[in-house]
Specification:
This protein is an alpha+beta fold and about 150 residues long. The protein has a single domain, classed as Hotdog Thioesterase (Thiol Ester Dehydrase, Chain A), CATH 3.10.129.10. Helices cover about 25% and strands about 35% of the residues. It contains four helices and seven strands.
C-alpha cells in the first residue's frame, strides 16, 4: 500500500495548512529582473511612489510562492497528477520585501472523472497570508489526484 495521499484523503471542506516562506528583498528583485522587470518590483524609490506603497513582489511571484508552499505541504506527498488550469487568480494586497508568508488550501468540491475513473478532480482554493493574517493572494482552480486502486 502506498504512503501517498490519494483522492479519498481529500474530503470536501478539508483545509491544508502550509509552512512558512520568507521573501527577501534580494530574492524579490532577482525574480523581477528575470520575469517582471517593472519599476515597482525593482526600485525602492519608484515602488514608494507606486500604488503598491513600497517594493513589492510581482503577482506572479506571489503565485509561485503559494504553489511552492502547496507542493511542500501536500502535493509531493500525494498522488497528484497535474492540473487543467486555474480559474481565478486574485492579487488582493501587495507582498512586500521582507515579509514571511504562509498559506492554506481548501477543498471546495470533488468528483471522480467519468472518463478516467483512476483520476479524482479536486476544485481547490489556495490562499497566501502574511504573519499578520492579511490575505495577499488567492488562486482557485483544479487539481487532479490519483484514486486508490481496488
Amino acid at each position: 500500500m502506498s504512503d501517498l495521499l490519494h483522492y479519498e484523503d481529500f474530503p470536501e471542506g478539508m483545509v491544508i495548512a502550509f509552512g512558512a516562506y520568507h521573501l527577501s528583498k534580494e530574492e524579490l528583485i532577482a525574480y523581477a529582473r528575470e520575469w517582471d522587470p517593472q519599476p515597482m518590483h525593482l526600485d525602492e524609490e519608484a515602488a514608494k511612489r507606486s500604488v503598491l506603497g513600497g517594493l513589492a513582489a510581482s503577482g506572479w511571484q506571489s503565485c509561485a510562492i503559494l504553489i511552492r508552499l502547496a507542493v511542500e505541504a501536500y502535493a509531493n506527498k500525494s498522488a497528484a497528477m497535474a492540473s487543467s488550469g486555474m480559474d481565478e487568480v486574485k492579487w488582493l494586497k501587495p507582498v512586500h520585501a521582507g515579509e514571511t508568508l504562509t498559506g492554506r488550501a481548501t477543498v471546495l468540491s470533488r468528483r471522480v472523472s467519468s472518463r478516467r475513473p483512476e483520476m479524482g478532480i479536486l476544485r481547490m482554493k489556495f490562499e497566501l497570508f502574511n504573519t499578520e493574517g492579511e490575505l495577499k493572494t488567492e488562486i482557485t482552480g483544479v487539481q487532479f489526484m490519483g484514486v486508490r486502486g481496488p
